[in-house]
Amino acid sequence: MTAHDQLQELRSQIDSINMQLLNLLSQRARIVTEIGKTLDELGSQHYDPAREAQMLQELEQANKGPFPNETIKALFREIFRASLALEEQQARAKIKVQRKTLDERTIITLPDGVTTIGGSEFQIIAGPCAVESYEQMDETAAALAARGVKIIRGMAYKPRTSPYEFQGLGEPGLQIARQVANKYGMFITSEIMDKSQIDMMLDYVDIFWVGARNMQNSFLLRALGAVNKPVILKRGLAATLEEFLYAAEYIVSSGNPNVILIERGIRTFEKWTRNTLDIGGVAVLKLESHLPVVVDISHSAGRRDIANPLARVARASGADGLMVEVHPNPPVAMSDAKQQLSIPEFNAMMDAIAAFA
Ligand code: PEP
Ligand code: MN
Question: Where are the domains of the chain?
Answer without folding.
Answer: 3-93, 108-356
